[in-house]
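in:
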């Protein structure tokens, strides 16, 4: 009888060990799948930019962009809407600001005309976040949370423009200090090599998929750019939604609780830490779209709260200016430094004002997300109207007014 009881105890212990080992193995597998989904997610966001930039750099696309930039001189409102539209089309504020810095450095665009472009680019870059949040459109609660996490970035940028744009027009609150700094730092070349390649150590890894697809369709299959670009963009969107689906599945249950606790104890423990993380991660990947989009599914899954990611978003806005500043220091040209500093000052001013007043953008984000979760077409309409319809109509009407 005792032998039977002993055998039963040993069998139970063996079964418990096997169950424990199986549970640990399952956790490891789920963790690896989360990392894989995160990599595909970030790579697909970058890949979208690859495809759209191919079209933008094609002769007809370049002519269109140069035509738009040719309209801005003497009209700051035109510059604001051009910056918004171009960034929305190519899904990259870095592309818009880099092009603007180049035009300022060559003297084709003045600093006062470039500053509104930079402001518009700040608004346009948040369209990627909204696209990411649309992956949860069929699940009301997740969609509400993820949309709030995405659109808070947009509301911060819009509020910053509404406040700072009039002040710049009236008092030059950005152009004057940017000009002073450029006079002090802009005439000396501080780096012999491009420093942005050294700090963007993570960028190459995440760009591998986009670079590979570009070589495949352009060099391998010899497709024309106006075909290769849209195909790459469509494939990127498919990969993006697939990665988000896998990520949401993996973040459910036990792993969700563990990640939430880990984030609360570390990266998002305090607002200042989250702010610093936003700066560092954006400097490493050289894309605020990637950095801010990364937390959208985490908010949607309930791992992070809106108030936790807000300072992280502000840090990402600061971090995205580091690339242009380092590039300007490497060029040793005062106009380039002035434009880079203007971008930094805009985000610093916005952070100084709307971090203490964070209840405004956060309340707006929560209210809009609540409305859009009930009427999902509101979110689609917002993206189309704010990022495309309004800037296109504004540009057309201002040009017609100018000619008339």
């Amino acid at each position: 009888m005792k032998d039977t009881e002993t055998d039963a105890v040993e069998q139970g212990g063996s079964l418990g060990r096997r169950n424990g080992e199986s549970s640990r193995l399952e956790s490891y597998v789920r963790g690896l799948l989360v990392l894989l989904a995160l990599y595909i997610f970030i790579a697909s966001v970058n890949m979208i930019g690859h495809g759209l930039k191919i079209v933008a750099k094609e002769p007809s696309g370049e002519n269109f962009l140069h035509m738009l930039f040719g309209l801005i001189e003497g009209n700051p409102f035109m510059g604001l809407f051009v910056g918004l539209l171009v960034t929305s089309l190519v899904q990259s504020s870095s592309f818009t600001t880099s092009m603007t810095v180049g035009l300022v450095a060559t003297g084709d665009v003045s600093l006062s005309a470039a500053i509104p472009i930079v402001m518009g680019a700040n608004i346009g870059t948040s369209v990627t976040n909204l696209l990411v949040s649309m992956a949860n459109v069929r699940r009301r609660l997740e969609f509400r949370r993820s949309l709030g996490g995405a659109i808070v970035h947009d509301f911060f940028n819009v509020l910053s423009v509404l406040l700072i744009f009039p002040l710049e027009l009236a008092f030059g609150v950005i152009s004057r200090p940017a000009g002073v700094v450029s006079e002090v730092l802009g005439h000396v070349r501080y780096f012999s090599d491009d420093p942005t390649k050294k700090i963007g150590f993570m960028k190459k890894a995440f760009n591998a998929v986009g670079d590979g697809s570009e070589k495949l369709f352009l060099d391998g299959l010899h497709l024309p750019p106006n075909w290769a670009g849209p195909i790459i963009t469509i494939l990127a969107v498919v990969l993006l939604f697939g990665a988000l689906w896998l990520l949401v599945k993996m973040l459910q249950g036990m792993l969700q609780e563990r990640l939430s606790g880990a984030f609360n104890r570390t990266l998002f423990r305090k607002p200042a830490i989250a702010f610093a993380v936003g700066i560092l991660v954006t400097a490493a990947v050289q894309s605020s779209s990637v950095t801010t989009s990364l937390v959208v599914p985490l908010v949607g899954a309930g791992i992070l709260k809106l108030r936790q990611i807000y300072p992280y978003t502000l840090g990402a806005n600061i971090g995205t200016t580091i690339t242009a500043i380092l590039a300007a220091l490497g060029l040793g040209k005062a106009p380039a430094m002035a434009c880079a500093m203007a971008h930094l000052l805009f985000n610093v001013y916005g952070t100084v004002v709307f971090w203490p007043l964070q209840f405004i953008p956060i309340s707006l984000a929560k209210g809009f997300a609540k409305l859009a979760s009930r009427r999902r077409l509101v979110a689609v309409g917002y993206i189309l109207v704010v990022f495309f319809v309004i800037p296109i109509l504004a540009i057309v009407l201002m040009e017609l007014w100018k000619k008339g």
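note: The chain has a mean pLDDT of 81.
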